Amino acid sequence: MSTDRRTRDLALIATFAGLVGAMGLVPGVSPFGFPVPVTVQTLGVMITGAILGGRRGGLSMLLFLALVAIGLPLLSGGRGGLSVFTGPSAGYVIGFPVAAFVIGTLVYRFGAPYRMWFGLPSIVFGGIVVLYCIGIPVTAWRAHLSLGEAITGSAFFLIGDTVKAVVATVVAEAVHRAVPDLLPRRQSSKPRAIKASAKPSA
């Protein structure tokens, strides 16, 4: 990897970590007193994965979590410090890098050009299905709820998260159209013709 490419990757990783941190300025909402707030930061996670890809997206969210762990108030409501990793929303927070990695891996595996019909299910799978699979059991554990109660409470997130997935899909499409070299080019599935070399006559 060239120095310029490495520098650009580091800048992108830091920039998108900052983006998710900035989204923490928007206060979270706890529907019906559910212990996990609804925030816009999961939108940032979706966008990060869809734009940066699996490796850079995952690293960006790991950087974000490291900044949270050292005490920076980057989560919604000005939360930060190690205590956020032991609360009811810890599973969702810890799942940020996993969600970004899954989304990015799927989107980048399909390659350029970016297609919304493939980007949307990739974002839904990584940003909703995978994140919920990590977040719900931890919520049940840390909030002393049954798994059924945690699932029911988390169902309130579905409409908002689906809207976020659509928004992230549109944003990613615009970015990839403007910066087409972010995505790897798809290799043609057509077999290459093999030209037989003519052997000289004896």
Automatic annotation (TrEMBL):
Keywords assigned by UniProt, alphabetized: Cell membrane, Membrane, Transmembrane, Transmembrane helix, Transport
InterPro entries: BioY
Pfam families according to UniProt: BioY
Domain of life of the organism encoding this protein: Bacteria
Transmembrane segments: 34-52, 59-78, 90-111, 123-143, 155-176
Single GO MF annotation: biotin transmembrane transporter activity
Keyword Transmembrane: yes
Listed GO CC annotations: plasma membrane
Membrane topology reported for the UniProt record: Multi-pass membrane protein
Intracellular or extracellular location(s): Cell membrane
Main location: membrane
Family of the protein in this entry: Belongs to the BioY family.
Name used for this protein in its record: Biotin transporter
